[in-house]
From TrEMBL:
Single GO MF annotation: sequence-specific DNA binding
Iron recorded as keyword: no
Swiss-Prot/TrEMBL keywords: DNA-binding, Transcription, Transcription regulation
Stretches assigned to the HTH araC/xylS-type domain: 224-325
Tagged with keyword Repeat: no
Superkingdom of the source species: Bacteria
Organism: Enterococcus asini ATCC 700915
Protein name: HTH araC/xylS-type domain-containing protein
PROSITE patterns tied to this protein: HTH_ARAC_FAMILY_1, HTH_ARAC_FAMILY_2
PANTHER family documented for this protein: ARAC-FAMILY TRANSCRIPTIONAL REGULATOR, HTH-TYPE TRANSCRIPTIONAL ACTIVATOR RHAS
């Protein structure tokens, strides 16, 4: 019901859209937009009113919107229809009930929307809202196996500073978006405060949706891929595992296994094992008071000198410096 009311509110063609419809050209709404399309151009914070860190606006239809980026976090919510965009050089089509999340350094340009297309922009000036925090993984899923799978399946999008979430089946998140829109267009008492509170709920909901979708991908990908089994074995036994033992466990020839690991991960077996040992050592340095020499032995390093050398190469500081910094 609320969605229909929102569509009814935004469907009429406003004065700016009328001009764009007549000319087919983008019409600047404020002076800063004259710079749109220039290399590395960023829209500043002029859209925000004082003490209003969130702005919700309808994207103007009937004309393309030039290439730009922002000094703030932006969500594009496809209320109705579709929107063709180029995000960081990649063509995408945003469909109804999909949400495009754009971090501060992402660039995008939009093709002209038709009359039946309704795209709403959610702009967040709040500095502590970052896409990276929404993508943050649970400790149990983070690691070389997780990164390998996400890179293999999601490709460059895994590390991109934009994200598309399909909210078609996510009723609660859509309701939160619609409540925020309703507060924005009705301008009721305490509307801004309610919108800000809802934004925190929304961000948590989106994080849960993202993690759920990623977990499903991860589960499907771990069923059959032998490379996943290899990486999981390294994570489980990095302190003592040798290439000969791994080859025996997997049932592969030693040289074939070594070449396979290098081809699939761009790292040697030894490099992967060392990286995992260093990660485990780093966690122990921060979370325990065990002596550094004991940690180096426990995580699989043959000597304290070797441990210090590799640790500095990886983290740019000594184990002692890391521990002192963490205390």
């Amino acid at each position: 019901m609320l969605k229909e009311q929102i569509i009814q509110h935004f469907s009429p063609v406003d004065d700016w859209e009328e001009k764009q419809c007549q000319t087919g050209r983008f019409i600047e709404e404020f002076a800063e937009e004259r710079e749109l399309g220039q290399p590395r151009f960023k829209i500043q914070n002029h859209l925000f009113h004082e003490n209003h860190p969130i702005v919700i606006r309808k994207h103007r239809r009937f004309a393309p919107y030039p290439l730009h980026s922002h000094h703030f976090l932006e969500f594009n919510y496809m209320l109705q229809g579709t929107s063709k965009q180029v995000v960081n050089g990649k063509e995408i089509t945003l469909k109804e009930n999909q949400l495009l999340l754009l971090d501060t350094d992402s660039q995008h340009e939009l093709a002209a929307l038709g009359e039946a297309d309704l795209l709403l922009n959610f702009l967040f000036r709040t500095k502590d809202l970052k896409l990276s925090s929404l993508k943050r993984t649970d400790a149990e899923s983070a690691g070389m196996t997780y990164d390998f799978i996400m890179n293999a399946i999601l490709g460059p999008n895994y590390h991109e500073n934009y994200l598309i979430l399909d909210l078609t089946k996510e009723v609660e998140a859509r309701m939160t978006l619609e409540q925020m829109i309703s507060e924005s267009i009705n301008a009721r008492r305490l509307g801004q405060e309610i919108t800000e509170s809802l934004s925190q709920v929304l961000f948590l909901q989106l994080s849960r949706i993202y993690q759920s979708q990623v977990a499903a991908i991860y589960k499907d990908a771990t069923q059959d891929d032998v490379m996943v089994k290899i990486l999981q074995r390294i994570e489980e036994s990095s302190a003592t595992l040798t290439l000969n033992q791994l080859a025996k466990d997997i049932g592969y020839n030693r040289n074939y296994l070594s070449n396979l690991i290098k081809k699939r991960t761009q790292s040697t077996f030894k490099e992967l094992v060392t990286k995992e040992r260093l990660k485990n050592a780093q966690q122990l340095l921060i979370a325990t008071t065990l002596p550094i020499e004991e940690i180096s032995q426990y995580t699989g390093f043959s000597s304290k000198t070797q441990f210090y050398k590799k640790f500095r190469e990886q983290y740019g500081q000594t184990p002692k410096e890391l521990r002192d910094q963490a205390q």
